[in-house]
Design goal:
Layout: E1 3-7, H1 16-29, E2 34-38, H2 44-48, H3 60-66, H4 70-73, E3 75-76, E4 82-85, H5 92-97, H6 107-115, E5 123-127, H7 134-142, E6 145-150, H8 154-173, E7 179-187, H9 192-205, E8 209-215, H10 218-226, H11 230-233, H12 238-257
Amino acid sequence: MAYIIAVANQKGGVAKTTTVISLGGALAQLGSDVLLIDLDAQADLTLGLGINPAQVRGSISDVLLNTNSLQSARRETSIPGLDLVPSNHDMELAERFLPIRQNYETLFRGILNTHLPPHAYDYILLDCPPSLGAVTLNAMVAANLVIIPTQPEYYSAHALRNVVLTIRRVRSQFNPNLQFRLLITMHDRRIRTHRTLSEQLRTTFGTGVLETVIDVDTKLRESTIAGLPITHFISKTRGSLQYQALAQELTQYVKENVNRPQPNKA
């Protein structure tokens, strides 16, 4: 089975979508088959891979709400080994209508388990909306790991509490082996408060913080405009090298932890 990573944070603007695109590209560079699923009604992941959400026919919302097959919504990107299930504004309906279904929390997990061939992908990355509603809950129930991108800023660090509480709820009710890791993003080494808060996060969460840090890099924004992961836009820029390092770190983590019973902690 594919290893499923949900990238989630209640706070927007923390490089969540950038992380999904860039990490997906880096994993594909390593030879993995990767599926990206855009679960956000803003459809930034879809747009960031060069697809106009307004022209999408057959999106993830059709899979969740209209029982279309995941295979029918899946499409190849220009990157070998990297596929996408796109989103559009119809995903706004998911937050309203998913909760009225019986056992809605496990709906998406069931879709992933039944709609994809067992060995179709090595990794599935889920780009969650900036909220802790029904869609993000479904993603966490389906995932093996939640990556929480967070800026080393006060408001971003403060928002972590609700995300961690939601993960604990998912563990206790639906997915006892769910793990999480914090990813420090948009880090500026010149700013003292960034250095201080990064150190505090590592003190508080210990090994729950990924070793890789993603620094500020304007090329990351340019790659989004180009509709490419940073790894395939400019391979030697700082952001590209750091996301390549993140892919290596996660690949090693998965090798060490897959099929191993996990304690209920980070």
